[in-house]
Amino acid sequence: QNYPNPFNPSTYIEFSLKNSGHVSLKISDVLGREVAVLADEYKQAGSYSVSYDGGRLASGIYYYTIKADDFVQTKKMVLTK
């Protein structure tokens, strides 16, 4: 999960990879429109923390989706201004 949540204007998303591979980390709004791509690259196994500044976005609910090989997970985060 990201922290802090709710956030204003920045947050951190942490994730760990058991195996090296291609990782995609994207943020979308409630309508499913992609608003940011935080990662779309090959990463080595290990733990990562990615920061995101939502200062240009309106307050509301957003979702981040992380994909790594066969793993896909979507979580909700809330931006408050």
- Enumerate how many helices there are, as a single number: 0
Distance between the termini: 20 Å
Q: What does the largest sheet look like? A: 4 strands, antiparallel
Structural class: mainly beta
Percent of residues in helical segments? under 10%
Overall average residue pLDDT? 96
Poorly predicted sequence stretches spanning 5 or more consecutive residues = none
> How large a portion of the residues is in β-strands, by DSSP E?
over 45%
Total number of strands: 7
Strand arrangement, major sheet: 4-3-6-7
Q: What value does the Rg take, in angstroms?
A: 12 Å
Tell me the overall shape. Answer: globular
Element string (H = helix, E = strand):
EEEEEEE
Q: What would your notes on this structure say?
A:
The structure is a single chain. By secondary structure, the protein is mostly beta strands. It is built from no helices and 7 strands. The strands form 2 sheets. A 4-stranded antiparallel sheet has the order 4-3-6-7, with no helix packed on it. Strands 1-2-5 form a 3-stranded antiparallel sheet, with no helix packed on it. 17% of the residues are buried.
Descriptors:
mainly beta, four-stranded antiparallel beta sheet, three-stranded antiparallel beta sheet, 81 residues, globular, 0% helix
